[in-house]
Write a structure and sequence with these properties.
Shape: elongated
Oligomer: single chain
Distance between the termini: 74 Å
Helix content: 25-40%
Length: 563
């Protein structure tokens, strides 16, 4: 019985493809502007680094690509780390050489692409590897008789000087269809080599199939009951691609014409939104916390509100088993790549750890991206490596926060204030005796409150210790960490607001450092205004303008009362 549905939604410039199994989002693919994995380039060697046993190659991307000696000549002996035991990169290539390479790992963050010399081309049933030997069969094909049959066919049809990998989709496929796939790939390889001879470096020689082509080739099979597409143009393209590689499946493709968005119609919009959030709930009250960093991705398992019904060990086991399914799913939906560490809740019983690890291995079997599991540690940590094929969903759909530059945190107002006071002490200490000892500080109102201290105690101490005068100005549009410190040629004064001056402040004016904390300030025309009766703000309607009356003028701020 076919339970899988593929949904293809187009909202320029994005194509989103969802795989739904048993009514639940199983996998997600999003593409904006294409990807470079498996693309083939003609590049020029920029520099050879014997210390890394590697070279950097200009292939026309923003960063040079990296290639190791073992990726040039696969017959070289390897060390335990997977790299070459001895440095011989200088014997293989030199600066200025032109070389044909294929991207094995796309650029991520500040790292350029990693490339290999041996080219591999994927068809529906076969992967053709240039310059390799032998025939491999996908491990996902479990029948030994079928594996033997496919291997015999591969040995018979394998082109000279090329290796073959027979894909899972080849299970049960006839020798004729396999031969046609091999012939098509061999023809494509010859075409690529001919284009490479004429191309100048750096340049792209061959682009991997677009997202629609990859879905037809890799995902659309007999297990898919229906494909829905909400764009006529992409519908026609998908049909044409299917006619070439799997004509028997064309009648399963349908054009979606309803007004309700495709993903909403099938109830998966919330799942897609949740795949972009840091916290993911589990069925019985537990939750996952997922973080992506430059070096690795972490998935932390928490019991949350789930308290179980019997023993703690059973509660922990059930939470971890729920986490296994959801963690494997989130890895697919988010397209996490590289090193992934899952921090399961500690399990005292050895049999529970084995059960969780077995469940994880089973859950990852449905992931078509190559994964490898390292054994579960006694503390509950599991390390997984998952092939990085493109940017993760988060990297693709989000950008770094312009305020914190992607750190997720900024300095506290107290930290900013302390740093500014230290800088001012340094400035006063370096001043010559004849120089004006007047310094003006401009900063955001929030750290300005910390800079003053409770009832100006920090400012008084700073002036007494330095023997100079400090003037304070505030700018709400400043970044919370920003400041401007300059020597003032003369003393500065506050605005000429006579006592009893009434000021009308907008209803949505900000309060510093925060409500229900004293002293309370507002910023007005570059000046901090302390509100003497700030407690009355609790009853103030935030939709009504605020009126205050100046009652005192100080050195660094004014004092007013709410009227």
């Amino acid at each position: 019985m076919h339970e899988k549905i593929i949904l293809i939604s187009v909202e320029a410039p994005e194509i989103s493809i969802a795989e739904v199994e048993h009514g639940r989002l199983h996998d997600l693919h999003v593409e904006r502007g294409g990807r470079v994995l498996n693309d083939i380039f003609k590049g020029r060697v920029q520099n050879v680094v014997p210390g890394m046993d590697a070279a950097f190659i200009d292939i026309g991307l923003s960063r040079n690509a990296l290639i190791y000696a073992g990726d040039i000549d696969s017959s070289l002996p390897k060390s335990s780390s997977g790299r070459n035991a001895t440095s011989i990169i200088s014997q293989l290539i030199k600066s200025g050489d032109e070389i044909i390479v294929q991207i094995a790992r796309p650029p991520v963050g500040i790292k350029g692409a990693r490339v290999v010399k041996n080219i591999s081309l994927a068809g529906r049933y076969i992967v053709l590897t240039a310059g390799a030997e032998g025939v491999g069969v996908s491990r996902r094909i479990e029948s030994e008789d079928e594996r033997a049959r496919l291997r015999r066919i591969g040995d018979k049809l394998r082109p000279l000087d090329h290796g073959l990998v027979i894909r899972t989709e080849a299970d049960g496929i006839s020798e004729t269809l396999l031969g046609e796939d091999i012939k098509s790939l061999s023809s494509l390889l010859q075409s690529i080599r001919e284009r490479a001879l004429k191309a100048t470096a750096p340049s792209v020689i061959h682009r991997e199939a677009g997202i629609l082509g990859r879905i037809v080739r890799d995902r659309f099979n007999e297990h898919v009951r229906q494909v829905w597409i909400d764009s006529l143009e992409e519908f026609n393209t998908f049909v044409e691609l299917t006619k070439i590689s799997a004509p028997q499946l064309v009648d399963r493709i349908a054009l979606y014409k309803e007004k309700t968005p495709l993903f909403s119609q099938f109830g998966i919009s919330e799942d897609i939104s949740r795949a972009q959030q840091r916290s993911v709930p589990l069925a019985h009250g537990g939750f996952l916390v997922i973080d992506e960093t430059e070096a690795l991705n972490t998935i932390d398992v928490n019991t949350g509100k789930f308290v179980g019904k019997t023993r703690l060990a059973d509660t922990v086991l059930q939470t971890n088993l729920e986490a296994v399914e959801e963690a494997a799913r989130q890895m697919r939906l988010r397209d996490l790549g590289g090193i992934i560490v899952i921090d399961f809740i500690d399990m005292e019983r050895h049999r529970d750890r084995i059960r969780v690890l077995d469940a994880l291995e089973m859950a990852l079997k449905s992931d078509q991206t190559k994964t490898r599991i390292v054994q579960l540690s006694p503390s509950g940590l599991v390390e997984i490596t998952r092939r990085r094929e493109s940017h993760s969903l988060r990297q693709l759909l989000h950008r770094s926060c312009p305020y914190c530059a992607g750190d997720g945190v900024i300095k506290s107002s107290t930290s900013v204030a302390i740093e500014i006071r230290r800088r001012i002490r340094e400035m006063f200490a370096s001043m010559k005796s004849e120089e004006s000892k007047n310094i003006c500080v401009t900063l955001h109102p929030d750290p300005a409150c910390s800079f003053l201290g409770s009832y100006d105690e920090y400012m008084r101490e700073l002036e007494e210790a330095s023997g100079g005068k400090i003037f304070l100005r505030v700018e709400p549009n400043f970044h919370l960490e920003a400041s401007k410190i300059e020597v003032a040629s003369s003393e500065m004064t506050l605005p000429d607001w006579p006592v009893k001056t009434v000021l009308r402040l907008p209803a949505q004016i900000a309060f510093y450092p925060q409500k229900d904390k004293e002293p309370q300030y507002v910023a007005w025309k570059g000046v901090l205004v302390e509100l003497e009766n700030a407690r009355e703000l609790r009853n103030h309607d935030q939709n009504i303008d605020l009126y205050i009356e100046i009652i005192a003028l100080g050195r660094w701020h004014c004092t007013a009362r709410i009227i």
